[in-house]
Design a protein that fits this description.
alpha/beta, Rossmann fold, 21 helices, binds adenosine-5'-diphosphate, binds zinc ion, PriA_3primeBD, isomerase, zinc ion binding
Length: about 725
C-alpha cells in the first residue's frame, strides 16, 4: 500500500474520571478507542490506577492538560450514561456537602455489581417454549422433563407461572435446553401482574384537606410536612398522592425507616396502588438490588418503597418523593459518606422539581422549624383516623417501690388486668440482653470490655458476656476475677430478664421477646408475630417494636427504663426520648379498643415528662427549640464533627490540634470546640477524640472546610490516625 501513513489526530478531549479513592480530585484518561464526547458523561469506565484496575464514572470532558505527559487509556463500559443529568448533579452536590471525593460518593450511590463494572441488570421477565425439535421429541420424554414439556406444549409460559405449576422445573428446563428441545426467551419488560387497585377508606376532613393541598401545589418542587399522630391516616394521604402521581405517568419514591419496611407495609402499597411496587432494603441480595436500580433507570419501576440507600435510585420520570417517619435516625448514614437521606431527598426533589412530603408523628426539630418559618407547608392530622381512640397515659412513680426485674407491682397488675380483659400487653425496654452489668457484690468489680470503655452486657440468663459496641463475647466468670468471691450479680434488667420475670408470673399466656437477639431477619419477625396472633399475651421488646407491624389487640404499652434517657449528655437525647415515647405509646389502641400507656419512672416530675404528658409532642418541641436556641445548637447553628481515632490518644489529639490550627488559619469566623474525648473514649481498642465546628450560618462552615481540608489531608499527623468528617452529625 503506497502513500504516507495517516497520522492519528491527537484526541481533542480527555475524560475526567471520578474514581473510588480517597483523593479529592478527578483523574484524566484517554478513550482506548474513539473520541471523548459530551455523551460520555455519566458512563462508567474501567481504568488502570497504579497497579490496579478501577471502575469509575466519567464526570467531565476537557482538553488534555499540557503538563500531563502520557495519559493512560480507559475502556468505556456503558453505551449510554448510567448516571444521568439530575442524579449526577445531585451527587456532585453531596460531594461538596460532605467534603468527600465525587468518586466515593458515586460508589456509595451505586449497587455493588455496577460499582464492579458489571452491565446494567436485566429487568426482563423470562419465558420458556418448546423448539421445533422439542415438539417432535416431546411424546418420547419421561419423568419431570416430560411434565415440563407437557406444560409447554399447551402454551409458552413465564418463569413465575412455571414455578407455581411444577416443582424444581429449572433442572428439567436446563436438561432440555441442553438438548435444544426448549428455549428461554425474554418477555416484554417486566410488568409483574399487579392486583386491581383496592379502594381505601373514605378520607376524613383533615386527610382530604391534606390531599387537596398536595394537589393544589401542582407538580413542581414543594416541600410539605405531614404532621399527625400514629394512626391519624398519614399513609392514606401518601397513597392518594402516589395515585395522583401515577395517574400523571410519573414515578414515586417512598423512603421508610429501616424497621418500618415490613411485609405488611409493602402489601398495603401493593394492594392499593394497582401497579407493581418495588422494594429496596438492606435484606436484598446484590442481584435484586441491581435489578431494582435498572428498573428505576429504565422507568419500569413506578413505585419504589425503600430504606436509606433508596434515595440514590435514578428517577428519570420522578413525580413525587415521600419520607415516612422523617425524624428517624436510621436515615442518617453513620460511616463512609455520611449523608442524611431526608436532607438529600430534599436536594433531589428540588433538582427534579417535584413535590416532597415529610411525614411524622414526631417531626424532627429541624423540620418543625422549617415548617414554622414557612419553608415547608405544614399539614396537620390532629385526630386518629377511623374509629381508633387516643390512649390514656399514666405515670407510675416507682421511687421506693419493690421492683422485680425492674418492673413495679403496678406494672404487673396492669398487665394482669389487660390479660383478664382479653387484650395484649407490650413491655418496652430499649436494652437487649439479660442485664446491662455484671457486678461483684463483695468487692465492686464489674465486667468491662477490654477493648471499649463500656461494661459488658450479660446474656443467656447470666452465662455469657457480650459487648454491644465492638461485639466481643466471652463466658461469664463463675467467681470474681478480682477477689475470688462468688457474689457475682447481674445488675439491672434487659429484655431477656424482663421476659423471664413475666413468663414466671404469667405462665398461662405466651410471652414473646422481640429484639435483635431473637429476630435477625425481617420475615422472621413477621412470622413470630403471626404465631403470636391476637389472643391474650405479652410482648417484650426494644425499639424494633416501636413501629410497623399492626398489633390490633394491643391494649397496654408499659415503658420501663425511661430514666436512662433523661440524663444524657447528648443535646439530642431529649428529642430522641420524646420521639420514642410518643411512637411507642402510639402502638396502644389502634383498633376499636382504647389503649393505655404506663410510664414507669423515678422522676415523675421531670420537666420533659411533664411537658410531654400535659402538652404533647408539640409543646415539648416548642420548649426544646427554645433551649436549643439559647444554647446555640441546631437548628440554630450548623455543626460539623471531625473524629479521629488511633491506638495512642496523643496521635488523635495531635491530629485534631493541627486540624484546628488549619481551620483557624483560614481566618473564617467559626467556633471550634476541642479536641475533646469522644462520648466513648475507647472503642474496639482505639482511642477516640473529636473536634466540633459550629457556625450560625452554613456558608462559613463550608467555606472554612473547603479552605482548610487540602492542608488537613496533607498533615503529617493525618497519617497516624483514622479520621473522618461528619457534617450535621446526629450523635455527638
Ligand atoms: P398513619 O400512617 O398516620 O399511622 P394509617 O394511614 O396507617 O396512619 O392509618 C391508620 C389506620 O386507620 C389504618 O388501619 C387505616 O386503614 C385506617 N384509616 C386511615 N384513614 C382512615 C379513614 N379516613 N377512615 C377509616 N379508617 C382509616
Ligand atoms: Zn469481687
Ligand atoms: Zn467492646
Amino acid at each position: 500500500m503506497g502513500g504516507p501513513m495517516p497520522t492519528a489526530p491527537a484526541p481533542a478531549l480527555v475524560w475526567n474520571v471520578a474514581l473510588p479513592v480517597p483523593l479529592p480530585r478527578l483523574f484524566d484518561y484517554r478513550p482506548a478507542a474513539g473520541e471523548a464526547g459530551p455523551g460520555d458523561i455519566g458512563c462508567r469506565v474501567r481504568v488502570p490506577f497504579g497497579t490496579r484496575e478501577l471502575v469509575g464514572v466519567i464526570a467531565g470532558i476537557a482538553p488534555p492538560d499540557d503538563a500531563t505527559p502520557e495519559l493512560r487509556t480507559g475502556e468505556r463500559l456503558d453505551s449510554a450514561p448510567l448516571l444521568q443529568g439530575e442524579l449526577l448533579e445531585s451527587l456532585r452536590w453531596l460531594a461538596r456537602y460532605a467534603h468527600a471525593p465525587l468518586g466515593e460518593v458515586v460508589a456509595t450511590a451505586l449497587p455493588a455489581s455496577l460499582r464492579q463494572g458489571e452491565p446494567l441488570a436485566d429487568t426482563h421477565a423470562w419465558g420458556w417454549r418448546l423448539t421445533e425439535a422439542g415438539r417432535t421429541a416431546w411424546p418420547r420424554l419421561r419423568g419431570k422433563p416430560r411434565r415440563l414439556a407437557d406444560l409447554l406444549a399447551d402454551a409458552e409460559r413465564d418463569e413465575d407461572a412455571l414455578a407455581t405449576l411444577l416443582e424444581d422445573w429449572r433442572g428439567a428446563a436446563r436438561a432440555l435446553a441442553g438438548r435444544a428441545l426448549v428455549e428461554r426467551f425474554a418477555l416484554a419488560p417486566a410488568t409483574p401482574r399487579a392486583p386491581e387497585a383496592a379502594t381505601g377508606p373514605v378520607l376524613n376532613a383533615e386527610q382530604q384537606q391534606a390531599v387537596d393541598a398536595l394537589r393544589a401545589a401542582g407538580t413542581g418542587f414543594a416541600p410539605f410536612l405531614l404532621d399527625g399522630v400514629t394512626g391519624s391516616g398519614k399513609t392514606e394521604v401518601y397513597l392518594h398522592a402516589i395515585a395522583d402521581c401515577l395517574a400523571r405517568g410519573r414515578q414515586a419514591l417512598v423512603l421508610v425507616p429501616e424497621i418500618g419496611l415490613t411485609p405488611q407495609t409493602l402489601r398495603r402499597f401493593r394492594e392499593r396502588l394497582g401497579v407493581p411496587v418495588h422494594a429496596l432494603h438492606s435484606g436484598l441480595g446484590d442481584g435484586e438490588r441491581a435489578r431494582t436500580w435498572a428498573a428505576c433507570l429504565r422507568g419500569e419501576a413506578r413505585v419504589i418503597v425503600g430504606t436509606r440507600s433508596a434515595v440514590f435510585l435514578p428517577l428519570p420520570a420522578a413525580g413525587l418523593i415521600v419520607i415516612d417517619e422523617e425524624h428517624d435516625g436510621s436515615f442518617k448514614q453513620l460511616d463512609g459518606i455520611r449523608y442524611h437521606a431526608r436532607d438529600f431527598a430534599l436536594v433531589r426533589a428540588k433538582a427534579l422539581d417535584v413535590p416532597i412530603v415529610l411525614g411524622s408523628a414526631t417531626p424532627s426539630l429541624e423540620t418543625l422549624r422549617n415548617a414554622s418559618s414557612g419553608r415547608y407547608a405544614h399539614l396537620q392530622l390532629r385526630a386518629r383516623a377511623g374509629v381508633a381512640r387516643s390512649p390514656r397515659v399514666r405515670v407510675c412513680d416507682v421511687r421506693k417501690r419493690p421492683l422485680e426485674a425492674g418492673l413495679s407491682p403496678e406494672l404487673f397488675e396492669a398487665v394482669a388486668a389487660t390479660l383478664r380483659s382479653g387484650g395484649q400487653a407490650l413491655v418496652f425496654k430499649n436494652r437487649r440482653g439479660y442485664a446491662p452489668v455484671l457486678l461483684c457484690h463483695d468487692c465492686g468489680w464489674s465486667a468491662q470490655c477490654t477493648r471499649c470503655d463500656a461494661p459488658m452486657t450479660v446474656h443467656a440468663g447470666g452465662r455469657r458476656l457480650q459487648c454491644h459496641h465492638c461485639g466481643a463475647r466471652r463466658p461469664a466468670p463463675d467467681a470474681c476475677p478480682d477477689c475470688g468471691g462468688l457474689a457475682l450479680q447481674a445488675q439491672g434488667a434487659g429484655t431477656e430478664r424482663i421476659e423471664e420475670a413475666l413468663a414466671a408470673r404469667f405462665p398461662d399466656v405466651p410471652v414473646l421477646r422481640i429484639d435483635r437477639g431473637t429476630t435477625q431477619r425481617r420475615d422472621a419477625l413477621e412470622q413470630l408475630l403471626r404465631e403470636f396472633g391476637t389472643a391474650p399475651g405479652i410482648l417484650v421488646g426494644t425499639q424494633m417494636l416501636a413501629k410497623g407491624h399492626d398489633l390490633p389487640n394491643l391494649a397496654l404499652v408499659a415503658v420501663v427504663g425511661v430514666d436512662e434517657g433523661l440524663f444524657s449528655a447528648d443535646f439530642r437525647a431529649p428529642e430522641k426520648l420524646a420521639q420514642l415515647l410518643i411512637q411507642v405509646a402510639g402502638r396502644a389502641g389502634r383498633a376499636e379498643r382504647p389503649g393505655e400507656v404506663l410510664l414507669q419512672t423515678h422522676h415523675p416530675q421531670h420537666p420533659l415528662l411533664e411537658t410531654l404528658l400535659n402538652g404533647g409532642y408539640h409543646a415539648f418541641a416548642q420548649a426544646e427549640l427554645g433551649q436549643r436556641e439559647a444554647a446555640g445548637f441546631p437548628p440554630f447553628a450548623h455543626l460539623a464533627l471531625m473524629r479521629a481515632e488511633a491506638k495512642q490518644l496523643d496521635a488523635a489529639h495531635a491530629f485534631l490540634h493541627a486540624a484546628k490550627v488549619a481551620l483557624r488559619d483560614t481566618g473564617i469566623a467559626l467556633e471550634l470546640h476541642g479536641p475533646l474525648p469522644a462520648p466513648m473514649p475507647r472503642r474496639a481498642g482505639y482511642q477516640r477524640a473529636q473536634l466540633l465546628l459550629s457556625a450560625t450560618e452554613r456558608r462559613p462552615l463550608h467555606a472554612a472546610l473547603d479552605a482548610a481540608l487540602p492542608a488537613i489531608h496533607a498533615l503529617p499527623e493525618a497519617r497516624r490516625v483514622r479520621w473522618s468528617l461528619d457534617v450535621d452529625p446526629i450523635d455527638l
